[in-house]
């Protein structure tokens, strides 16, 4: 059986195929001018037409209407579908939220990815995308909670909109430095270093309050920009959510029919 692993985020659709224990490299498509919901469905229809898949395992942050449209599409095409959601005790994870359904499904998949990549040990998971989430989990699978903050591009967009730099379309994040000789580079470096400082500080505060040493896992679209600048030991895995989705697919395959 070939399974499509899908991560439908706020800005892009990421996917990989999983068959006979092997996963293809992650690929991604931006939604462009479409709304996230419309763009994700359009990309999914194209992928389903291209891939000879029997099942989809998907996580998304696009709301209930998107789930309903996806379920209707898969029912029409007779495709098996698993939409990953946060549930109490699912896959050995105890989510700290009083109502686990209110915990973002993408964050839940991040916890599963840490379990698959790092084993049964305490971990702090940083998912750096449109927004950045930081969550901690104990070795016994208990989720301790986390924080959410703006991602790198959101920081830059807000700075451009709210200052006299509105004529600048984008700021560069490559080759950041603290001594800059132009405004554009200064803004890009400032946004990147501010996010790096926040990640380092929050992780340090989390570790201080955890009863066991935690491994740090960095994933998400901005991993390659952030990883070289973060001054704390961490494992960088941009496509870690695919690891979490693969874990779900493997667990589903083990369930009795």
Write the CATH architecture name of the largest domain: 2-Layer Sandwich
| CATH C-level category of the largest domain | Alpha Beta
Radius of gyration: 19 Å
Q: Quick check: average pLDDT?
A: 92
Uncertain spans:
none
Strand content: 15-25%
The H/E string reads EEEEHEHEHEEEHHEHEH
CA-to-CA gap between the ends? 15 Å
Which descriptor suits the 3D outline? globular
Task: State the oligomer.
Answer: single chain
Q: Considering DSSP H and I runs of 4 or more, what fraction of the residues is helical?
A: 25-40%
CATH homologous superfamily caption of the largest domain: ATPase, nucleotide binding domain
The count of domains is 2
Number of H- or I-type helical stretches: 7
Largest sheet: 6 strands, mixed
Q: Could you give the count of β-strands?
A: 11
The name CATH uses for the topology of the largest domain is: Nucleotidyltransferase, domain 5
Derived structural class: alpha/beta
What report would you give on this structure?
There is one protein chain. The protein is an alpha/beta fold. The protein has two domains: 2-83, ATPase, nucleotide binding domain (Nucleotidyltransferase, domain 5, 2-Layer Sandwich); 120-238, 2-Layer Sandwich (Nucleotidyltransferase, domain 5). It is built from seven helices and eleven strands. It has helices at 36-50, 64-77, 105-118, 152-161, 183-209, 223-226, 240-254, and strands at 2-8, 12-19, 22-23, 27-30, 55-60, 80-83, 123-128, 131-137, 143-150, 215-219, 235-236. Strands 1, 2, 3, 4, 5 and 6 form a six-stranded mixed beta sheet that branches. The chain has a five-stranded mixed beta sheet with strand order 9-8-7-10-11, sandwiched between helices. Strand 1 (2-8) and strand 2 (12-19) form a beta hairpin. The chain is globular and about 60 Å long. The mean pLDDT is 92.
